[in-house]
Amino acid sequence: MPQGKLSVLVYAPASVPMYRDFPEEVFRQRQAELGVRIDLVRRYDEVRARIAEPDVYFGARLDAEDFRQAKHLRWVHVPLAGIDRVLTPDLAASDCLLTNSRGCMAAAVAEHALGAILHFARGFDLAVAGQRARRWENVRELRMPMELADLSVGLVGFGEIGRELASRCKALGMKVFAMRRRKGANTAPDLVDRMWGPGHLEDLIDASIFVVLAAPALPDTEKLIGRRELMRMGPQRFLINVARGPLVDEEAVYRALREKWIGGAALDVFEKEPLPAESPLWALPNLLLTPHIAGQTPHFWERVVALFFRNLERFGRGEPLEKLVDKGQGY
């Protein structure tokens, strides 16, 4: 570790359900082992009161005015993949390092998306509707159930979630296509049959039965899927969003499902969360709606904490950090 005791401020809000099983004891143990000072706080007003002191901040929220008071801060770690509540213009312009926990939930999110693919491919949506109506549904007359080897999946985004989902889909015999932000050769020919760079969303849609959104929320991905894309998909294709709510135009998705422009959709994320009770999305029978649970896994904190302490040791030795965020790109 650097000369002097490294100071770390950890924000684990007690009011947020995911922090109720936060491994506080691990931080106490590692503090002694590494010879650092770790202060753990449960309310954001405590962050405001202490942010001027630490070298390192662990938390999913850091307001712009508080970052400006953080005179000693050299590294911020976000215990989630999303960094939108931390990456302010001042932080982006500073020398402060920013890391996130992308990949810690990738397997869970990929398997959630795979479950959604199975839900529609095997006609579970139709069978469940029949069950609710106490009707022995003739599913094949409504939509013939599909075998996985006949499916094609198009991934919008090929980060860690996209790679995890591609490996699972490929293992089950599906064709896999992907579109990523960078141009260039297919970087995963063992997992992806064809990979496009930006500007090829229509090609991806045309090639795929299931279009899966796994890209970050950025200005150029806002409402990436709107009326035009949904009408292009048609009733034999399905949309899955396990990325961020703003990637889709919810009003257009509602109309596409109600008027059956597309076969169905699975949404785990929304423009406003929790989704208001008055939202018309709740009533759509061809929508699989889940309350932002794709990333939930019993291994979440185990992986996040292991990543953070690996990086804390690297930081103390002056080595490059894992999961470093490109602050200019925003991911």
What features would you describe in this structure?
- This protein is of the alpha/beta class and 331 residues long.
- The protein folds into two domains: 7-104 and 297-317, NAD(P)-binding Rossmann-like Domain (Rossmann fold, 3-Layer(aba) Sandwich); 106-289, NAD(P)-binding Rossmann-like Domain (Rossmann fold), CATH 3.40.50.
- Helix content is 34%, strand content 14%.
- The protein is built from twelve helices and twelve strands.
- It has helices at 24-34, 44-50, 64-69, 89-93, 106-121, 124-132, 139-142, 160-171, 201-207, 227-233, 250-258, 300-317, and strands at residues 7-11, 37-41, 56-58, 75-77, 97-99, 152-156, 175-179, 194-196, 210-213, 238-241, 264-267, 287-289.
- The strands form two sheets. It has a seven-stranded parallel β-sheet with strand order 8-7-6-9-10-11-12, with helices on both faces. A five-stranded parallel β-sheet has the order 2-1-3-4-5, with helices on both faces.
- Helix 3 (64-69) links the parallel strand 3 and strand 4.
- It is elongated and about 70 Å long.
- The two termini are 28 Å apart.
- Belongs to the D-isomer specific 2-hydroxyacid dehydrogenase family.
- GO terms for molecular function: NAD binding; oxidoreductase activity, acting on the CH-OH group of donors, NAD or NADP as acceptor.
- Keywords: NAD, Oxidoreductase.
